[in-house]
Amino acid sequence: MSLIPNRKLTDAGNPAKPEGEAGADMLRYMNEEHSDLTLWALDLIDYNNISRILDIGCGGGATLRYLSERVTDCHLTGVDYSDVSVALSKEMNAALISAGQMDIVSGSVAALPFKAASFDRVVTVESFYFWPDPVESLKEVRRVLTPEGIFLLVSEIYERPDLTPHCRENISKYHMNVPGIDGFTSLFHSAGFSDVAIHTKDGEFWIAVEGRNRSTAPA
């Protein structure tokens, strides 16, 4: 488990909201560090018959790049409340932005700068740890999802008895939201997601929580 393996780099960069050159260095490092987790999770997404995908907390831009390799006819949008993250994501994906296939904007999950029902799929990788008011933030995700849209939340860890002391120390130090499987399920249901599926990977502490937005579907 590699949660915050480089304490010095992470402390300098501020994982909750990357800042300055230290934040940019941390994001570049995280792009590489979380590549296996991200690729595993993105393979869980159903990409059929969709036209718009949102990445919340787009960080260093790697998730958007990986998404662009899976879809050729979808418009991709990234949002992050860190100016450093927005700049680095734009730098990594400059060609796709110039081609009109992607846009990256500043904004917070607490008040996403998009109209209701704007996206068929929404993903977030390694950002939920720092979301304010998790239930209200998840409601905001549901707001921007289309009817029958799907949200995939990806985290490197979740609460379980065998988390290491070092991992628990980092969770406390950085004030991270780390629910367990039942906790994630409860949060998603509280936010209005009618169907919740949990994905984990053998041999890893990874979790991907899939919420389906079926609020307007017939009973």
How would you explain this protein's 3D organization?
With 219 residues, the chain is α/β, with parallel strands linked by helices. It is 38% helix and 21% strand. The protein has nine helices and seven strands, in the order αααβαβααββαβααββ. It has helices spanning 7-13, 20-33, 35-42, 62-70, 83-92, 94-98, 134-144, 165-173, 181-190, and strands spanning 52-56, 75-80, 102-106, 119-125, 145-155, 195-200, 207-212. α1 packs across α2 (20-33) and α3 runs parallel beside α4 (62-70). The longest helix is centred in the N-terminal third of the chain and has 14 residues, at 20-33.
Question: Would you summarize the structure shown here?
Answer:
This protein is an alpha/beta fold and 219 residues long. It has helices spanning 7-13, 20-33, 35-42, 62-70, 83-92, 94-98, 134-144, 165-173, 181-190, and strands at 52-56, 75-80, 102-106, 119-125, 145-155, 195-200, 207-212. The N and C termini lie far apart (42 Å).
Throw out a few tags for this protein.
Rossmann fold, 9 helices, alpha/beta, 219 residues, 7-stranded mixed β-sheet, globular
Whole-number tally of structural domains: 1
According to CATH, the homologous superfamily is Vaccinia Virus protein VP39
| Tally of DSSP β-strands | 7
> From N to C, what is the helix and strand string?
HHHEHEHHEEHEHHEE
| Quaternary state of the chains | single chain
User: Please, what is the average pLDDT?
Assistant: 92
**Structure class:** alpha/beta
Number of helices: 9
Trace the largest sheet across and list its strands.
3-2-1-4-5-7-6
Distance between the termini: 42 Å
- Computed over alpha carbons, the radius of gyration is 16 Å
CATH class: Alpha Beta
* Morphology: globular
Strand content: 15-25%
Low-pLDDT stretches: none
- CATH architectural label: 3-Layer(aba) Sandwich
CATH topology description: Rossmann fold
Let me know the largest β-sheet: 7 strands, mixed
